[in-house]
Design a protein that fits this description.
The chain has 163 residues and is of the alpha+beta class. It is built from 4 helices and 6 strands. The chain has helices at residues 25-33, 51-72, 107-117, 127-134, and strands at residues 3-8, 11-18, 83-89, 93-100, 137-144, 147-155. The chain is globular.
């Protein structure tokens, strides 16, 4: 497992590779929660992200990771590639990137279809719609041979630190 964390200035970058397995979702969430600025030892630089925004980003992580495992990596029988996740915390927004090695698709076309197809009785199919509604910017693009990147950006007003 690759894990990297860089601290400095008004930017905090963390990257980690996780096995493509829904059984480790709790580990993914524990890793993400460990990045919450309120848990950082060096609070002099860290942005103070509102709890609601953090929870929305956490939900986006769950949706993105789950989609990578269930859909992008579903056709792998052996040597299932890992899901790589990167979180970048900046002074006024959070960037979440999730890389998979599945077949690329046009996110905007898929979203348009899903909005038309989803009804109240359907159990699934709302994840991308939810991501789109929560994100200030959402994209899914092929980035290099065989890899795709889901980018979720969420802006926020930094909270005042209480001492």
């Amino acid at each position: 497992m690759l894990s990297k964390r860089v601290l400095g200035g008004f930017e905090d970058l963390a990257r980690h590779q996780f096995p493509s397995n829904l059984g480790i979702l709790e580990q993914v969430l524990l890793w993400f929660d460990s990045l919450y600025p309120e848990k950082c030892p060096n609070k002099s630089y860290s942005p103070h992200i509102p709890s609601l925004v953090w929870q929305q980003c956490k939900l986006a992580l769950v949706e993105g990771f789950t989609n990578a495992v269930r859909h992008a990596h579903k056709n792998y029988d052996r040597e299932i590639p890992p899901v790589e996740i990167e979180v970048k915390l900046l002074s006024e927004y959070l960037e979440l990137r999730i890389w998979d090695r599945g077949k690329a698709f046009n996110l905007q076309e898929t979203l348009e279809k899903r909005v038309q197809e989803v009804d109240n009785q359907t159990e699934g199919g709302r994840g991308l719609i939810l991501l789109d509604k929560m994100a200030d910017k959402l994209s899914y693009e092929p980035v290099e041979t065989g890899r795709n990147c889901l980018l979720f950006i969420k802006y926020y007003q930094p909270q005042q630190q209480l001492n």
